[in-house]
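Render this sequence as a predicted structure.
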Amino acid sequence: MSSRRRITALVITLTAVALVTLPWALFTSRADLTFGPHEAQYRITADSRLTVDFGPLGRLLVPTEDVIPLGLGLHVDIGEIPVSGDSGDDERPAADPAEVADPGGGSVDALGGDIASYASLFSAPQAQIDQVIDGLSQEILTRWALAVCIITGGLVGLALFLGPARVDTIIRAFVGKELLGIGLVLVLVLTGLGTVVLNRPKPIAADPAFEGTPLAGSQVTGRLGGIIDTAFGAVQDFADDNDAFYDEVLAALRAQWNDRPITGNWTDRGLVPTAGVGAPAADGGEGEGQKGVSTFVYGSDIHCNIGMARVVGAVAEMSRADAYIDGGDISMTGTSAENYCLDVVDDELPEKLPRMFVKGNHDSMETTRHARARGWNVLEDSSAEMAGVTFFGAADPRRTVFGSGPQLETDLTADQYAQRLRDEACRADFDIMLIHDPAVGGPSLRSGCADYALSGHWHRRVGPENFGSGTRYVSSTTGGALANALTPGPLKMNAELSIIRVDNETKRPIDVQIITVTPDRQVQIDPWVRFPEPRPLVGQPPVDEPVGE
């Protein structure tokens, strides 16, 4: 048998195996993801509908002919709402004044939180869509590749067992019948797909309650039909109010942007560069074209406020920022369902903008894993460079969950962790420390091992100011997270976002501009505030600031 015939037979075999196993991989794959606040399992169907299965309560059926091609559909099995934490944790630190101002430490309306999570699907659905596509695509490709490898490997093993002579005899029997073999494979594949299509369920009987909404044409079955009008109305009202609020905020931001204060020190020596070398662009944007200055947008304590995520993205784009920095608490409790909180921020930021994240006490190790998977620079007892500036930081050792307070995620208390961080900072070479809780970074500043530190956690702005022998800046909450109130939705307190400029030669922060969004939809852009330079250790008064206060 010629080598050409052998190669042809191999190609036909691989093609046949791939065609036969693709439908199997497509319709048997399962992806464990989230749906709003719930854990959920997704799988592909052939019924041109989205089926959201709530178990004994019933199902929500949504037509997908205009969204999913080839007559395919999606089935979602809704699971539990994940809850983290153990109220019996003996090592849990006592509550402190800072935690009183932290929304995770107070009583939160759980139902309101669920409504906010569902409303996120209406206000920013792309993050959920991307999550489903990525999850299912990975599962389908994995199963398909595994099936092709196993079957092909089995055929190769069988050929080795039979020997060349017998294989040649078998191949000769099929010589000239390649088209017949291909036709047989196509018949098998089409028969399988036809069986699936013929078993498609009855058409959806549209529920009039959904007319004029994103779920127009949908149907509800079972007991869920008795409560869907009220539940959907609450979610829709929340989403509408949220969208309207932040539409007005973004309009106010854009109206004031070109008139914002643009004076300030463009280098840490107080010099104003000539046009084209670090000077403002013609449209007033910073960032791009400034060879002597790097511009960073800095947010912290967003607490899953997807409306403010839109503001973060707009400021990053209009300021022509070189990178976005997040000081932690991007979620509320750090469950896997709340990975969506980071996804929304990620989607709102300019596509190729570098991003950095350090875990806060309302995030979890799952949050950091997810951030890294999305391409973020994550600081975990490590340093990373963005826009020529080296940042050093570490994850907050605690995790705060609703109703049970902070728990330790490491074998060290927060105070012990702060001391270890100081020792690591003294050995590391970096420009700026990024740490969620200012008190955790305090020993590093007092010892002279960190010149500059950026933090959040307190939900109030501090500085920029000298602290110990260094300089710190504590950002207020970017999500407008008021204690004992639902964070997602229209603001209950002021939300703040910072633009920080860093000298590219000395790598030192020059100044910061604060953008404040108020509950009455107003936007205020403050003048630039200078970062004071670090001062020598000699003569500095002792500072006693326990972690968490």
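Summary. The longest helix spans residues 125-162. Residues 85-112, 270-290 have pLDDT under 50 and may be disordered.
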